[in-house]
Amino acid sequence: xxxxxxxxxxxxxxxxxxxxxxxxxxxxxxxxxxxxxxxxxxxxxxxxxxxxxxxxxxxxxxxxxxxxxxxxxxxxxxxxxxxxxxxxxxxxxxxxxxxxxxxxxxxxxxxxxxxxxxxxxxxxxxxxxxxxxxxxxxxxxxxxxxxxxxxxxx
Length: 154
Known about the structure:
InterPro entries: GINS_A, GINS_bundle-like_dom_sf, GINS_Psf1, PSF1_C. Belongs to the GINS1/PSF1 family. This protein is of the alpha+beta class. The protein has helices spanning 2-11, 18-53, 59-62, 67-87, 138-147, and strands at residues 106-111, 116-119, 125-128, 133-137, 150-152. The protein has two domains: 1-86, Up-down Bundle (Methane Monooxygenase Hydroxylase, Chain G, domain 1), CATH 1.20.58.1030; 106-152, 3-Layer(aba) Sandwich (Ribosomal Protein L9, domain 1), CATH 3.40.5. 53% of the residues lie in helices and 14% in strands.
């Protein structure tokens, strides 16, 4: 506002204010660039959260996000889901699995908390109770590992 007032005075003939006006304008542009860089970095981090945690974020992370950021996350999540359904035929292709190439198709996991029944492809249901260990297909339990339900035993 002060800069606008000085601009109107400079138009009326006060040329000594031109340097001050330019300085303020450069400061405003710098602040704008810094703010946009900060917001872009936050969006990149929110996008990375989708790949790391899946479609449901933990409450501790959502607590630190603004309403607009949660809305952007939900729109990104829906857009990614739509793309994954369109790529892989009838069932779609889950791009969030196998972020790192697997060394084996089955892994040994330990359950960190009570989860309940878990069904694998052959129709077998497994009861995931705290501290129980299982030998499961990697692609089936990778999401639960990211959510903190299971722990990969090396």
